[in-house]
Write a structure and sequence with these properties.
Layout: H1 13-24, H2 28-35, H3 39-49, E1 58-62, H4 68-72, E2 80-85, H5 88-100, E3 107-111, E4 124-130, H6 139-149, E5 150-161, H7 169-189, H8 194-204, H9 208-218, E6 221-228, E7 233-239
Parallel strand pairs: 1-2, 1-4, 2-3, 4-5
Antiparallel strand pairs: 5-7, 6-7
């Protein structure tokens, strides 16, 4: 099932997602930290820490948004970090953030399509994605492109929303995610669809073992899932043999 941000729009999912993120990009960082109560920062740190044993020298951050995950990856002291996103608005605000922090010599943000990566085979030691694969128009194609650009023994680390299953957290989560979050998102971002699309897209995303099966089918080995914060989100990892 394909969930679209704008139900009355004839554009395909990829173009709708780009438009949505263009619309919310000025307030994206503020809303991210507000709606997650700052926990998203903790999740990113945990995801990046999983890369430490690999010491990746070249990192690709897909669906980079405003570059938070790319910035976090600098803790690994890589030689280069490239972030790509299909939203011009997100790239613009990310570039302003990086310039303000004097990180232009460390991180490069580029407009790019995650399902058609403009990089050679076996280029990166790590590919990272935070809350991006759920928005892919063609999930298998996007994951296959990640596999292609990874070098041998390279690792993919994917952070994505999931759904808690245990009482009472499941009920509290559903109430917040389906009713409260969209209201706050609409008020702050002024986009009446973006934060309705968020819970809808999480609902249909193949999480847990289902997603691990997809990663395996693409070619990744040693796949695993690490639930975070009662299952609100999960980290998925896999390596290229």
């Amino acid at each position: 099932m394909t969930v679209l941000p704008y139900k009355n729009n004839n554009l395909g999912k990829k173009k709708q997602v780009a438009l949505m993120f263009d619309n919310i990009s000025p307030r994206y960082d503020f809303l991210n930290h507000l709606l997650s109560l700052g926990i998203d920062r903790v999740w990113r740190r945990k995801a990046i820490n999983l890369l430490k044993p690999k010491h990746p020298k070249h990192i690709l951050d897909i669906a980079t948004g405003t570059g938070d995950f790319a910035i976090q990856s600098l803790k690994l002291n890589p030689e280069s970090v490239i972030g790509i996103d299909i939203s011009e608005g997100m790239i613009y605000h990310g570039q302003q953030k990086i310039k303000k922090r004097n990180l232009n010599d460390k991180i490069e943000l580029l407009l790019g399509d995650s399902e058609n990566l403009a990089f050679q085979d076996n280029k990166f030691g790590a590919v990272i994605v935070a809350f991006g694969v759920r928005n892919f128009e063609n999930l298998n194609k996007g994951l296959s492109e990640m596999y292609r650009v990874l070098n041998k023994n390279g690792i993919v680390v994917i952070l994505e929303f999931s759904k808690p299953s245990k009482f009472p957290f499941k009920q509290v989560y559903n109430l917040y995610f389906k009713y409260i979050l969209p209201i706050i998102g609409k008020m702050v971002s002024r986009d009446h669809s973006a934060y309705t699309y968020l819970p809808e897209s999480v609902q249909v995303f193949p999480e847990g073992n289902d997603f691990l099966t997809i990663l395996s089918n693409v070619g990744f080995k040693e796949v695993r899932c690490i639930p975070l914060t009662f299952g609100i989100s999960s980290i998925y990892t896999g390596t290229k043999a």
